Prior knowledge:
Layout: E1 3-6, H1 13-20, E2 25-28, H2 30-47, H3 73-84, E3 88-91, H4 94-108, H5 117-128, E4 132-133, E5 136-138, H6 147-157, E6 162-164, E7 170-172, H7 173-179, H8 191-196, H9 200-230, H10 240-244, H11 249-262, H12 266-269, H13 283-286, H14 288-310, E8 318-320, E9 325-327, H15 335-363, H16 386-402, H17 424-455, H18 463-474, H19 487-498, H20 501-510
Parallel strand pairs: 1-2
Antiparallel strand pairs: 3-5, 4-6, 6-7, 8-9
Helix pairs in contact: 1-4, 1-9, 3-6, 4-5, 4-9, 9-11, 9-14, 9-15, 9-17, 11-14, 14-15, 15-16, 15-17, 16-17, 17-18, 17-19, 18-20
Subcellular location: Cytoplasm
Enzyme class: lyase
Family: Belongs to the PAL/histidase family.
Amino acid sequence: MEMVTVGTGAVSFEDVVAVARGGAGVVLSDEALAAIDKARAVIEDLAASATPHYGVSTGFGALATRHIAPELRAQLQRSLVRSHAAGSGPEVEREVVRGLMLLRLSTLATGRTGVRRETAELLAALLTHGITPVVHEYGSLGCSGDLAPLAHCALALMGEGPVRTADGELTDAATALAAAGLAPVELHEKEGLALINGTDGMLGMLVLAIHDLTDLLKVADISAAMSVEGQLGTDRVFAPELQAIRPHPGQALSAANLTALLRDSGVVASHRGPDCNRVQDAYSLRCSPQVHGGVRDTVAHAASVAARELASAVDNPVVLADEGRVESNGNFHGAPVAYVLDFLAIVTADLASIAERRTDRFLDKARNHGLPPFLADDPGVDSGLMIAQYTQAAIVSELKRLANPASVDSIPSSAMQEDHVSMGWSSARKLRRALDGLSRVLAIELVTAARALNLRAPLEPSPATGAVVALLRDHGVGGPGTDRFLAPEIDTAHQLVVDRSVTTAVANVIGELA
């Protein structure tokens, strides 16, 4: 099993993906264990003090004014976790739960939270053994952390609540722990709060979204190149000297990809001579680098925010071990993460929108430069890809609704103590749905453009785009012909997008795209 070591510093994007999606196990470094022990000593000193300290010897949130006697503090921790494990709705995906567990462990490892080492080690063991608590869709306001999702995970450390085993079987936490040779913990002062007070759910989904969108941007460049080629567009507008006079970095990268993808295209070469009467291509073709590039730059900004958040210790109160004290703070507020999650939903919708517009041009005989209507075999008898574009349009319409930001929709809670919240969890959930929609829109553009390139025979596509056409055909996505059941072919193309077969096929011919 691949193992990821969690220390006192930031976990990497690659580590998050490896643990969340790849099932890697987790171990705490000696440095992290020493930091945890040092912070725990501070908490134990404060717990013995007659002076109330928030999160250590008081109630929580709007109930923070009550001093809790020592004999009630174990009950306090149990009550906190049980009451906050109040999620509802469908189960959240396994990779999301594993991601938030890893990121909570990363904060524990900084020595800023005051948990005991055995509590942190049990959280690491759950990840290593593939025990995944059941977390629900609804429950987080993205402020005071992703409270309900994290509480469901903390509940499992206590040996309570439903979990799924490594093979996906639904069972209770006590049974799963026992089967793995693990014992539940009894939470001590501060531990319950430390386990549930973080932006880990929304951050984990942000990291996974950046990982996915980075590859989907390459797919978008590939599908755009195939559309430019199939619609007899020009590649001259992608020249580097034209990008240099508007020096957005993402635009330059996308244009360079398009140039590389279209190199040695027989289709493009066929209309490059002086007798070509095409002056300018439509915006959806000509401006692909500007739109795709803007998305790239937005992803880069989101990645910088995610990197700072990965390097953070998000808890309240936080332990300042060197000073021997605990301080309240507002670092749990999810606003920075929520904003970029919403920003990514906006650019995801627009990336899908321009892809749908390129697809639509193939189907209109007035705009597709000599191809049959709807790329049909016998138009009128056959409908071709008419309704595949309807599917794209339906998805794009949905993505536009999902682009409405959640982060502006604060709603007060906890008797007005928590009177402004980020809704970052909601931002992340809708972004995941949006990315699924984008991948399907791009798959349909690939199917459409590949059919068009076949119809341009005997003209040959470029080696790179030809490799994508061959990939689709080799996996049963058929070319031109009479109408057939399209849904399975669209699903196959979609799978080739999300499993990165499309970008791999291109990389095997011209190298990795930028």
